[in-house]
Design goal:
The chain is built from 18 helices and no strands. The protein has 431 residues and is an all-alpha fold. The chain has two domains: 129 residues, no CATH class; 202 residues, no CATH class.
Length: 431
Amino acid sequence: MDKITAFIEEKVAPVANRLSSQKYLKALQSTFLFLIPFFTIGSFALVLISPPMDYTTMDPGFLCSLMQGWQAFADFTGPVLEYVYNVTMPLMSLYVAMGISYNLCKEYKMNTMMPILITVSSFIISASMNGDRSLTFAAFDATGLFTAIFVGISSFELYRVLVEKKVGRISLEGSGVPPALADSIGNLVPVAIVIVLVAFLNNLLFSLTSINLTEVITIIMTPLVTAVDNVWGVIILAIIVMVFWWFGIHDSVITSALDPFFYSNLGANAAAFAAGTAAIALPHVVTAPFWWNFMAIGGSGATLGLAFLALTSKSKQLKTIGKLAFIPSLFNINEPLIFGLPLMYNPIMMIPFIIVMPLNGLITYLAMSSGIVARTFAYASWNMFSPIAALIDTMDIKAVLLIVVLIIIDILIYLPFFKAFEKEKLAEEQE
């Protein structure tokens, strides 16, 4: 064990920490964090205009009346809320292209809007080219997410290099021209180079293959998406994340790289549900809400059950930590537990801390893939209380029951290890 710990501390941790500070991963992670309000608003709009049951097929009663009222509300608000949905989730890739360029501008301290315009226009060219060279917006949703990332980073970096090398620079400084105009005219040549090059390459690709860049990237990424949206993928990824966390390496090292897969699957599910697909038959199981609302109940490591145990502990130290950690844990914030209990480098708590979250993922995956519980098509946000989030994410009351069962299982797994840890703390307090 000591050799494994030393190896991870000396070899793995430095690499992981460098990855977590990698500028593209940071830009991508920040972009998805910025977009959570859009996803949440769009999800709520989709939920509100989509009653989970058809009242016309139900026996008279309270539930039937509730669904009838819901349908009346959906009919009344539909024209507005449907528009709200259509300008949020179905435009996910466009917003991601904007966000990547914005965050890279911050990284490079570029105080100009031009890179954002370049990135957006490059993405539109790459994602909207049709067979007759007309515009199509079908790939602006989750379908074009990987295109937005690839084209966003590539076009931004090309423009940045051209500007730094002063390629075709038109100098207007000191001539009384407003700074914004001097910047835009001064970089006219780099702008033209990037846009024309992107259009040329996409046209060449279409001429050679008869498909656009989004379709090519989709073909390339399909095996990876399949590997992530798989029960073994869920288990392995969760174990890796939790092993890293136990050694003090933040989960964002892994999850930030997984965000494109999670949100791509969520967008596809939302589009399918909006088109009339039943929630139990949506195309993907593993999404952002699957990971954060069903697996990480209380935060990474599924520590809500552990927070409850600490709150009811006989140890003064653990009970104090429980009082501090319980309320944040309800909203999936568990740093008080991870650093205060602590869970990091805690040999007694290592086994449950690593296995509970993968177990939640396994049980949830089996429940959703078998059709027992509906799959996620909305996203209530990562810090919503899990039972409420589960209901919003799936519009299935069985999802709430699943969360309750998972919390009980988590408590039972943590319990014997916690009691052993509590015994140590009580002995220390008596001394």
